[in-house]
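Study this protein:
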Amino acid sequence: MKFVKNLFSAVLAGIMISFGGGVYLACVAAEKAPLGAFLFSLGLTVILMQGFLLFTGKTAYLLENKATEYVPFLLTIWLGNILGCMLMGLLTSLAKPAMAVTAMTLCTAKLTQQWWQTIILGALCGILVYIAVDNFKSDDDKKPLHKYLLVFTCVPAFILCGFEHSVADMYYFAAAGSLYSVKGIVYILLVSVGNLIGAVVFHTVKKAVIK
């Protein structure tokens, strides 16, 4: 069944992003955030190479598809992503309590943002993730390293700038135990909307300018 296949692919993507988030938390605790931001790229790289379904990697193409088909597709991916992150967040909190404390500090700071700030930060992240993903999908086989260049620059860029990635936040909030609160869920939804807006708008404008 296609739904089940997509769901499990999305779960795996959530797990991969969680690995990236986990190494970032470890590096933040060791006061090496820039290194953690760079190593976070591991998650997106594996997803792109394996073809797993990531919400932030698929949102840009919403307007190019039938809404009745693509919206349920995106919702399935979102659900799978959050399930994968919930699993990894639980395992992290059980096996590495210190990382859960770091995640809690991170999430507490995020919740001090105004709702509109969260959407804007999500939109800016959505643009950078779209650029990395769309570039990776290019047919430029003569420059294979070129496909990875933007992954390992755009990802650290959005992390160090403080932009918000919905799936990464799913993991952080799950590890912190904050995902299961009204504030946590609302925050993730706001970031998800921001990610979608940023990617869709940038992709649409790019298509209009570059034909």
